[in-house]
Amino acid sequence: MLRKITKVNLIQNNLINTQYVIFRHLSAKAELNEATENQEKKKAKKPKKALTDMRFKYPEFLPQPDNRLRNPVLEKIMRKDMLDRRTQINIPEFYVGSILKVSTSDPHSQGKTNSFVGICIQRDRTGLYSKFALRNVIDHQGIEVMYDLYDPAILKIEVLKLEKRLDDKLIYLKDALPEYSTIDVNMEPEILAEGGNVPVNETIVKMKPFPWMQKWERQGLKGVEDLDKHLNLWRKQQKVKHDTPWEKYDLMKEYRKTITEEEQSEIFSEIFNRINKINEQHKQKAKASRRTISKPQNIG
Questions:
Q1: Residues 20-46: what's their mean pLDDT?
Q2: What is d(CA 300, CA 298) in angstroms, rounded to the nearest whole number?
Q3: Calpha distance 153→102 (Å, rounded)
Q4: What pLDDT, in 10s, does the model give residues 133-146?
């Protein structure tokens, strides 16, 4: 009888131990799944932030939308080379309408360097072929310089005034009054609060009398005055004839001109960590290079 009771107790203990082991196993598995879900949520936040911020800060990392000219392997190699170049030079955040100072190496100039200050009127192309153009009016003469963003000859890009404009391109400044393109070459940088929104300059530009370099009245510009007062009857009729107000509802045309959100998320999640690390290194270098001035101490 005692043997039977002992066997029953052993069986009960074994069952309790087995249940305890199973419970611990299930608890550990649940904790592991919860940790995995948290990691996935953190990873999922990167593309969301990238879509809202990085696609405007770093548009050159997005490939061209024409699938006939796409090469995924070449695009990945280009992104790696672009990040490597950014470790050598600080390429700051800027937009069309921002005022920049670009210093380049020039073997034919005094001091072997050359600098140009101007307003950014255009950002074009993607990848290592990215370009941007600056314009300034110096001695009553309009001067424009086109730079390759990842040109090894560029020594420094400095943002003197960070702002946006109402239009994606400011090429019409060529036909605008000179004061809208005149920038002081000795302009001091305007510092914005870190983490704040980039201001939008809503200046309405006044154009010179006709003739113009392009038919600006047909391009739906937001940052220029009403152009109808410069047009004769025939040009007004041509404007109405070529007007296409339905294009803003053409979803397929917009789709063909852009990169899908899924692909943008994949690209920016690939470069997110490294580009933030590079920017942090440049900030630390800038802080270390600043000369600290101590107050003189009274002796005696």
A1: 57
A2: 6
A3: 11
A4: 999 999 999 999 99
- Residue 17's pLDDT is 61
Q: Which 3 state secondary structure label does DSSP give 34?
A: helix
| Distance separating alpha carbons of residues 183 and 98, to the nearest angstrom | 11
Nearest to 155 by CA among 147, 145, 143, 165: 147
Coil vs helix vs strand at 32: helix
| Rounded alpha-carbon distances, angstroms, from residue 169 to 104, 123, 174, 181, 218 | 24, 8, 12, 14, 14
Residue 39 CA to its chain's centroid (Å): 26
User: What confidence tens digit (pLDDT) does each residue in 267-282 have?
Assistant: 988 888 899 899 999 9
Residue 191: per-residue pLDDT: 85
| Pair type for strands 200-201 and 164-165 | parallel
Determine the Cα–Cα distance for residues 208 and 31; give it in Å rounded to an integer.
69
Q: Sheet of 154-161: strands edge to edge?
A: 141-148, 131-138, 113-124, 99-105, 154-161
Contact (Cβ atoms closer than 8 angstroms) between residue 197 and residue 161: no
Structure tokens at 90: 């600080």
Amino acid at 44: A
**Backbone torsion region of residue 225, taken as left when φ is above 0, otherwise alpha when ψ lies between -120 and 50, otherwise beta:** beta
Instruction: Give CA–CA dist 174/181, Å, rounded.
Output: 8
Residue type, 137: V
Q: Compute φ and ψ for 271, nearest 5 degrees.
A: -105, -5
Beta-bridged to residue 144, according to DSSP, are 135
Strands (E), 106-163: 113-124, 131-138, 141-148, 154-161
User: 134: burial class by Cβ within 10 Å (0-12, 13-18, 19+)?
Assistant: buried
Q: What gap in Å lies between CA 119 and CA 205, rounded to an integer?
A: 14
Distance CA 61, CA 77 (A): 11
> For residues 133 and 150, what is the distance between their CA atoms, to the nearest angstrom?
13
